[in-house]
Amino acid sequence: MLHLNDQSLLRTRAFVAGSWVEEPELGEFSVFNPADDKVLASVANTGPKTANTAIEKAVVAMEGWKRRTAKDRAHILRKWFDLILTNAEDLALIMTAEQGKPLAESQAEIRYAASFVEWFAEEGKRAYGDVIPAHAPDLRLLTLKQPVGVVAAITPWNFPSAMITRKAAPALAAGCALVIKPAAETPLSALALAELAHRAGFPDGLINVVVGTDAVGIGGVLSGHPQVRKLTFTGSTRVGKLLMAQCAATVKKTSMELGGNAPFIIFDDADLRAAVAGVMASKFRNAGQTCISANRILVQEGIYPDFVRELTRAVKALRLGDGRDPDTDIGPLIDGAALDNVDSLVRNALDGGAMAMAGGQASVLGGQFYEPTVLVDVTPEMRVFREEIFGPVAPVVRFSSEADAIAMANDTSAGLASYIYTQNVSRIFHMADVLDYGMVGINEGMISTEVAPFGGMKESGVGREGSKYGIDDYLEIKYLCIRGG
Ligand code: NAP
Question: Is 203's pLDDT higher than 90?
């Protein structure tokens, strides 16, 4: 049993039209703590029927909401923001319990999640239209921005709160209603946010959360229902492509935040200490289960030996354990399948000639704990270079020239985050130009913030979240052509 300051944040039913609901015929599903595999909660298993009801209720709720002033909407969003921060300790406890990340990381994610609510409460007031110089003397041309319609949001387990608010806050600020389907591994964080939204005063039906294990069935309703006008998804590239195809039948707008394969390029002239610190932050946060994690660490030959020595030293000092223990740096992976996948990538690299300088296997702690790992002599043929690792494994690849580094970095269908470490200013601008990535960290490994646009190129996604651009994904531009006047 999870003990919270406010036990009523632990919700275990779906949230539809302001009520906590279930589908008794579908029973319940268990939510596990990945650190000890113990059952944390039994949650109502809801499915397509609840998803349909939630959409109908959202359609009705949106009618009133979109007519309110942006300032009025901002007022309620601001209350939600305050409530999230007031309850940050409990929200972080829920997150660590169901997701496994260290408590300090959960607390940071709650602040990050809240930051989107505060940001978009303000941005909603600035959804300006235009007055366009007309092409004829007796015409006046204007544009208005209007909410896109009911939004469906499907979110992953790796950032169970921030991936919800990064979508919900701009949608609500724009005047949309929302149906959220969180990952089945982490429904409790989503339901706690819904409880706080209810307390903040959002009208019933405006925010709905459908929880259940039938992702295909629920996803089918959310992507197929004609009254859902926008689907926003964060998750794997495989499922993102499937949802885009399903959305085509009703020509829904989509925003897709999909998988990455981030190159982290360290040149000979880099500040060694900063580069190691950048890799540690980017690679090992959330046990490497982050879409913008350094996935391939490309190191120029001059700095390679020193870098490998210092990185290995830092990785060996990491403490693996239960996220609730304040001494823990790295928690467990989300489940057994995730651990098997990480281990098979490491085995493939070792079989192909790579060497483990640290880790290289599952931990003696058992369960879903994997040893923080450094692999050297990695080559582009290995799976660990080509696939998203989603685990605490740092593959290091040697390169000689800048051109080699660029070719290797861009040799992937992904295009989310990339990183470069160098002191050379002209190289910084050249690399920023030629890397086919939506985001470039330059001498910095932690790039996420609500004020900057997050998103990917190529198969990493469509659209941008956060920043002044993030609300555009939830607005339609309407053009008015007025004769006379
Ligand atoms: P996933 O398997 O794609 O799951 C994501 C969400 O989609 C979950 O809610 C899941 O539900 C649901 N889902 C699964 N199959 C579905 C289907 N057929 N129809 C509709 N919904 C479906 O991804 P994941 O393993 O949870 O998350 C890891 C991935 O997310 C990584 O590739 C990572 O890079 C990516 N990610 C990207 C970003 C970004 O901003 N670009 C951020 C974070 C993560 P169930 O859990 O119930 O199966």
Answer: yes
